[in-house]
Design a protein that fits this description.
The protein is of the alpha/beta class and 546 residues long. The protein is 48% helix and 11% strand. The protein has helices spanning 3-17, 30-35, 39-43, 61-73, 76-84, 115-134, 159-168, 185-191, 212-229, 245-250, 277-283, 285-304, 311-325, 343-355, 387-392, 412-431, 435-444, 449-459, 477-498, 509-522, 532-545; strands at residues 44-47, 50-53, 109-110, 113-114, 148-152, 176-180, 200-205, 238-242, 258-260, 330-335, 373-376, 399-406, 467-474. The strands form three sheets. The protein has a six-stranded mixed β-sheet, with helices on both faces. Strands 6-5-7-8-9 form a five-stranded parallel β-sheet, sandwiched between helices. The chain has a two-stranded antiparallel ribbon with strand order 3-4. A hairpin with a 2-residue loop joins strand 3 and strand 4. Helix 11 packs across helix 12 (285-304) and helix 13 (311-325) packs across helix 19 (477-498). The N and C termini lie far apart (59 Å). Bound molecules: 6-O-phosphono-beta-D-fructofuranose. 6-O-phosphono-beta-D-fructofuranose is lined by residues 154-157, 206-208, 211, 214, 267-268, 353, 505, 508. It is an enzyme of class 5 (isomerase). Belongs to the GPI family. It catalyses: alpha-D-glucose 6-phosphate = beta-D-fructose 6-phosphate.
């Protein structure tokens, strides 16, 4: 590690572990508000309609300065720009990382090729196909209009589009979207009764077109189409979204039904590529364009805003403070909007697959912890589930709280209650409740002294638990595009700060490799090379299956 980078890390860690100049503990938040009535203004940042409030963290002015020094020492701007220039920043796979090119801005190149021109050509084909379907010019084999689109894919070929569809689909939208991911055929059995093969368009979404789950489900669904419509009609109900044009042809999908993208698009960053075709079809082309436009605006912000006002960079530095400064290895994502119910799942893949790394770019063990465990649920449901641990558990869990100012329903009372809960959770986590406050409250309620003594420790809240609040004016395709791109750039920034490759995922390979021989054993072969536990479980399964 370069000298100044090591010093910058040491400065951040020291600030997080030693009392502040005024004697307050570096983990406390309330004294920061007491000392600075302007803290909200100083620690909240607006960009293009989004508001990011970082004031309810224990980051002081000094800590923020040290974190920004760290970003400069890690050469975050130069490395970010190298990514945008199409350099092979995914070093283990020797690939460029150009999901920003997918938003249609223009001017992106990879390996000397004009990536933006290619993107424009594919987007043009996606648009023509979408309009032909949604306007009823392209129909199913029996002449009926398509009413449903089934996306078969997993991981990045499922989570992003499924999350966006869940957030933005309305009953008056062009097609009903369905997402089939798990190789568990119960998933297909659950979706199947809702579909009629005559009116269903099936997209096989797989970057590699080799993923076991997706190819297994694709075969099941293909057989269902053939059974319902006849083999000759199947092609008219299928399309493929992939980088592997050989495999899509082998599967029998006509060339004009294949929507390609390139290996410079990582799966978890791919919802803007052909992988988003289910969104264009189900939400309409205009909505898909708005999604790209929102991401484009966030790209411009990430590439040009100074670090001290750069939302994704500030979010990344806040994570560094929590993970590396305070040693907090978990983060909750709490969207106070039911439509964002799948956002935590999308962010789990985006962040944990990207940042779950233990070696640096050059293969040395990392000197600091890397990606935290990410989980979440929409508020207010989360409050009645796991928030107890976040309020009173032994390990503080920083949380992202996402609020939407204007709902799309006509029930203002419900919305006010939703927002009140979100704001109250953040306030309660920060404020806590002292012994004196609990005692006074119980005394006022007439509780007997012995009972107060008994319950006091249970009813005290430590407080000083950090939250970050992201406020959206409205949830629509544009703002959702901004939000998803915000988190993508946060991930890229953390990869730079931690010196790791945020764009590969070797950790998923071993399980895939070991599945092969175990599958053979389940098919009846003599198990070989298995550990005692796996052998025991195989035998138990065989006997339970009779
Ligand atoms: O699980 C690993 C992974 O490669 C993800 O990164 C990816 O999004 C997913 O599998 C699906 O891959 P594919 O799109 O190639 O089917």
């Amino acid at each position: 590690m370069a000298q100044d980078l090591a010093a910058a890390w040491a400065a951040v860690v020291a600030l997080a572990r030693t009392p502040r100049g005024d004697g307050t503990a570096p983990t406390t938040i309330r004294p920061l508000f007491a000392a600075d009535p302007e803290r909200f203004r100083r620690f909240s940042h607006s960009a293009d309609g989004l508001l990011l409030d970082l004031s309810k963290t224990s980051i002081s002015e000094a800590a923020r300065g040290a974190l920004l020094d760290l970003a400069h020492s890690a050469e975050l701007p130069a490395r970010r720009d190298a990514m945008a220039r199409g350099e092979a920043v995914n070093v283990t796979e020797r690939r460029a990382v150009l999901h920003m090119a997918l938003r249609g801005t223009g001017g992106f190149h990879a390996g000397g090729e004009d990536a933006s021109a290619e993107v424009a050509a594919v987007l043009g084909r996606m648009r023509d196909f979408t309009l032909a379907v949604t306007e009823g010019r392209l129909r199913g084999a029996t002449g009926e209009r398509f009413t449903d689109v089934l996306n078969i894919g997993i991981g990045g070929s499922d989570l992003g589009p499924a999350m966006v569809a869940r957030a933005l689909w309305r009953p008056d939208a062009p097609l009903r979207p369905h997402y089939l991911g798990n190789v568990d055929a119960h998933a297909w059995e659950e979706i199947r009764p809702r579909l009629d093969p005559r009116r269903t368009l099936v997209l096989v979404a797989s970057k590699t077109f080799t993923t076991q789950e997706t190819m297994t489900n694709a075969a099941l669904v293909r057989a269902w189409l053939a059974e319902g419509l006849g083999e000759a009609a199947v092609g008219g109900h299928l399309a493929a979204l992939s980088t592997n044009l050989g495999a899509t042809a082998d599967f029998g999908i006509a060339e004009d039904r294949v929507f390609p993208f390139r290996d410079w698009v990582g799966g978890r960053f791919s919802l803007w590529s052909a992988i988003g075709l289910s969104l264009a079809l189900s939400l309409g082309w205009e909505a898909f364009e708005q999604l790209l436009a929102g991401a484009r605006v966030m790209d411009a912000h990430f590439l040009t805003a100074p670090l001290e006002a750069n939302l994704p960079v500030l979010l990344a530095l806040t994570e560094v403070w929590h993970v590396n400064g305070l040693g907090l290895g978990t983060r909750a994502v709490l969207p106070y909007d039911e439509r964002l119910a799948r956002l935590p799942a999308h962010l789990q893949q985006l962040e944990m697959e990207s940042l779950g790394k233990r070696v640096t770019l050059d293969g040395a063990p990392v000197a600091h912890d890397t990606g935290p465990v990410v989980f979440g649920e929409p508020g207010t449901n989360a409050q009645h589930s796991f928030m107890q641990l976040i309020h009173q558990g032994t390990r503080p869990v920083p949380a992202d709280i996402i609020l939407v100012a204007r709902p799309d329903h006509a029930h203002p009372d419900s919305h006010r209650k939703l927002l009140a809960n979100g704001l109250a959770q953040a306030a309660a986590l920060m404020r806590g409740k002292t012994e004196a406050e609990v005692r006074a409250e119980m005394e006022a309620a007439g509780t007997a002294p012995a009972e107060i003594a008994r319950l006091l420790p249970h009813r005290v809240f430590p407080g000083d638990r950090p939250t970050v609040t992201l406020l959206l004016p409205h949830l629509d395709a544009f703002t959702l595009g901004q939000v998803v791109a915000l988190y993508e750039h946060k991930v890229a920034s953390l990869g730079i700060l931690w010196g790791i490759n945020a764009f590969d995922q070797w950790g998923v390979e071993l399980g895939k490799q070991l599945t092969g021989p175990i599958l053979k054993a389940l098919e009846g072969a003599e198990p070989a090379g298995q550990d005692g536990s796996t052998l025991g479980l195989l035998a138990a399964l065989r006997s339970a299956q009779g």
